[in-house]
Write a structure and sequence with these properties.
Blueprint (H helix, E strand, L loop, with lengths): L1 E7 L8 H4 L2 E8 L6 E10 L2 H7 L9 E2 L3 E9 L11 E4 L9 H4 L7 H9 L9 E3 L2 E5 L9 E5 L3 E3 L6 H5 L4 H12 L7 E5 L3 H12 L4 E6 L2 H10 L3 E4 L5 H8 L4 E6 L4 H9 L1 E9 L13 H6 L3 E4 L7 H13 L9 E5 L4 H10 L4 E5 L5
Parallel strand pairs: 4-8, 11-12, 11-14, 12-13, 14-15, 15-16, 17-18
Antiparallel strand pairs: 1-2, 1-4, 2-7, 3-5, 3-9, 3-18, 5-6, 6-10, 7-8
Length: about 375
């Protein structure tokens, strides 16, 4: 079949993207879903810094590539061997497919799936195949999803069923931003009731981490960002205090306000200064978590002796350190109960034709979660 998709042919591209226009909307051909694969009609796809990092060259990927990884849609057709989904079923997409058989999957850590990571790096589906062609040549898949399109063929292992009552635009956020941010707080930082927590970097993932810390029962949640609008958004979500991350005295102010630092600090900004700030505001015996994907050249400089003498812990968090098939339904249930107000993260939507202009909003920090919505999406 043929459909429209946003294609990136090279990188890096610089803002304003409305001028440089790195993404072109092209008519591509989708092959039928193979064994264990599903054809999905896309409803909505969120703009995320993981997409932006491919456009600006921070994350090198094979070209050409159909971008988009945080999305929802309706099952259109199932390939051979897929018997637990039916046409019309609503689904959310996950950017790391898990084989279920490798050592990390067997240990209950599907975010670290080895075949999934290899497929994502190569720009293929989990099977190793590509299902998109354009101008007679293959197009690479973005982390197995490629959701800035009207339709996508994905591995069944990249899908999680969605309750039919959930709006699909909202469901899109759970596949990346919510899964990553809430999971960083709940699974990786292991925030306990009554503890203090901080989040450095208040984009979609960071604000999801604020929500996760609150849902976990943190007594204080400190929000840090250089953008005053994002600090205000964090306070609106329930953060107990907010500080300017660009203030030279920020670390001292947070340590004073929290009586020596927080039990858990989560960094989601993807820059070295943000991680250093998160480390600096973590108390003795505390946990510093990073859930961002900076340029691979970025290095950290941490005093070794502090990790030992203060029993400090640093942990990375990928895909929220959890199990998508378990965690996404749980987070959706919390949202339905009003305990995880993810809907407050949505700041606008645009049609596929305006995707370059929409990425300018993200690059400027004017959007938390801006959605590309497809015609006819519910």
């Amino acid at each position: 079949m043929q459909c429209r998709a946003a294609i990136l042919t090279g990188f890096p591209s610089t803002a304003p993207f409305a001028v440089s226009r790195p993404l072109s909307i092209e008519t591509v051909t989708l092959a039928d879903p193979g064994p264990g694969e599903v054809l999905v009609r896309i409803a909505a796809a969120g703009l995320c810094h993981s997409d932006l990092s491919v456009i600006n060259g921070d994350r090198a990927r094979p070209m050409p590539m159909a971008l988009g990884h945080e999305a929802s849609g309706l099952v259109e057709r199932c390939g051979p061997g897929v018997d637990d989904l039916r046409p019309g079923d609503p689904v959310a997409m996950v950017f790391m497919p898990s084989c279920g058989c490798c050592a990390p999957c067997a240990e209950g850590r599907p975010a670290l799936c080895e075949p999934g990571a290899a497929a994502n790096a190569a720009g293929t589906l989990l099977s190793g195949a590509t299902r998109i062609t354009w101008q007679g040549a293959p197009v690479h898949h973005h982390v197995g999803v490629s959701a800035f399109a009207e339709y996508a063929v994905v591995s069944r292992r990249s899908l999680v069923a969605v309750p039919p009552e959930m709006p699909l635009d909202l469901a899109a956020l759970f596949g990346c931003g919510v899964l990553t941010g809430v999971g960083a707080a709940v699974n990786t930082a292991e925030i306990r009731p009554g503890e203090t927590a901080a989040v450095v970097g208040l984009g979609g993932v960071g604000l999801s981490a604020v929500l996760g810390a609150l849902a976990a029962g943190a007594a204080e949640v400190i929000a840090l960002d250089v953008n005053p609008a994002k600090r205000a958004a964090a306070l609106d979500l329930g953060a107990t205090a907010a500080f300017d991350a660009g203030d030279p005295d920020c670390e001292a102010k947070v340590r004073e306000a929290t009586r020596g630092g927080v039990h858990a600090a989560i960094e989601t900004a993807g820059v070295a200064a943000a991680f250093s700030l998160a480390w600096g505001i973590t108390r003795r015996g505390g946990r510093t978590v990073t859930a961002s994907l900076p340029n691979p050249a970025v290095r950290m400089n941490i005093p070794h002796v502090m990790m030992v003498g203060e029993e400090r812990t640093i942990r990375g968090s990928y895909l929220g350190g959890g199990v998508p098939s378990r965690d996404i339904p749980r987070y959706m249930a919390l949202q339905a109960q009003g305990r995880l107000p993810v809907e407050k993260l949505m700041t606008g939507s645009s049609p596929l034709a305006e995707i370059n202009e929409s990425f300018d909003l993200l690059a400027r920090g004017d959007a938390i979660r801006h959605l590309i919505t497809m015609e006819g999406a519910r």
